[in-house]
């Protein structure tokens, strides 16, 4: 028995749910590393991968000369969203809290470092996935409350910041 995986594909402002059976029904031929010939419902389509960001699961595809921005959600993304684990936990003191329970794989900043918005701060392993936690603003790292390989709870102080 094969498990069927479902994906939510966001194409510009539209959303589609597809599963592995849907994908396997495509008649897909690779022309080059970024170009494909697709036959779907007796119609030929020229598909080109313009840009891909696998970390964010986003890509830009050109289909028959038209560009489309695509974001892919799998079962894990759906589960994490439903659990509210993508929500940013923030306090008025700008401290960085653990967004979910897990353990610290790597600290990417040290006390005294100046950070900008989207600066990688640390890697948190949770639910068998490694998550790079980014700064949500600018500031200076005042202190780090945890060490590498230490377990943390959701909402636990990780980094104290000075605005």
Short description:
By secondary structure, the protein is mostly beta strands. It contains two helices and 15 strands.
Describe the fold and architecture.
It contains 2 helices and 15 strands. By secondary structure, the protein is mainly β. It folds into 2 domains: 6-76, no CATH class; 87-162, RNA polymerase II/Efflux pump adaptor protein, barrel-sandwich hybrid domain (OB fold (Dihydrolipoamide Acetyltransferase, E2P)). The strands form 3 sheets. A 7-stranded antiparallel sheet has the order 2-1-7-6-5-4-3. It has a 4-stranded antiparallel sheet with strand order 8-15-13-10, with no helix packed on it. 10% of the residues are buried.
How would you summarize the topology of this molecule?
Elements: E1 6-11, E2 14-19, H1 20-24, E3 27-30, E4 35-40, E5 43-53, E6 58-63, E7 66-73, H2 75-83, E8 96-97, E9 102-107, E10 114-115, E11 120-126, E12 129-134, E13 139-144, E14 151-152, E15 157-162
Antiparallel strand pairs: 1-2, 1-7, 3-4, 4-5, 5-6, 6-7, 8-15, 9-11, 9-14, 10-13, 11-12, 13-15
Give keywords.
163 residues, OB fold (Dihydrolipoamide Acetyltransferase, E2P), 2 domains, mainly beta, 9% helix
User: What is the C-alpha radius of gyration, as a whole number of Å?
Assistant: 20 Å
Overall number of domains: 2
**How would a crystallographer describe the biggest sheet?**
7 strands, antiparallel
Overall, the morphology is: elongated
CATH names the topology of the largest domain as OB fold (Dihydrolipoamide Acetyltransferase, E2P)
Give the name of the CATH architecture of the largest domain: Beta Barrel
Total helix count?
2
Total strands: the figure is 15
Taking the alpha carbons of the first and last residues, their distance comes to 55 Å
Topology as a string of helices (H) and strands (E):
EEHEEEEEHEEEEEEEE
CATH homologous superfamily assignment of the largest domain: RNA polymerase II/Efflux pump adaptor protein, barrel-sandwich hybrid domain
Low-confidence stretches: 89-93
Share of helical residues: under 10%
In what range is the share of β-strand residues?
A: over 45%
How are the strands of the biggest sheet laid out side by side? 2-1-7-6-5-4-3
What is the top-level CATH class of the largest domain? Mainly Beta
Question: Which structural class do the helices and strands define?
Answer: mainly beta
């Amino acid at each position: 028995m094969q498990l069927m995986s479902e994906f939510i594909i966001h194409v510009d402002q539209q959303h589609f749910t597809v599963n592995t059976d849907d994908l396997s029904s495509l008649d897909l031929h690779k022309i080059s590393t970024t170009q494909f010939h697709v036959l779907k419902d007796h119609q030929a389509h020229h598909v080109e991968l313009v840009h891909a960001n696998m970390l964010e699961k986003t890509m830009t595809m050109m289909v028959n000369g038209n560009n489309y921005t695509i974001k892919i959600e799998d079962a894990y993304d759906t589960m994490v969203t439903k659990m509210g684990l993508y929500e940013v936990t923030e306090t008025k003191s700008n401290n960085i809290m653990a967004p979910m329970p897990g353990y610290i794989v790597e600290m990417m900043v040290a006390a005294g470092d100046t950070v900008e918005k989207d600066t990688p701060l640390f890697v948190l392993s949770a639910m068998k996935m490694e998550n790079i936690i980014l700064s949500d603003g600018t500031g200076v790292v005042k202190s780090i409350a945890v060490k590498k390989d230490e377990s943390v709870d959701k909402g636990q102080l990780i980094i104290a910041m000075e605005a």
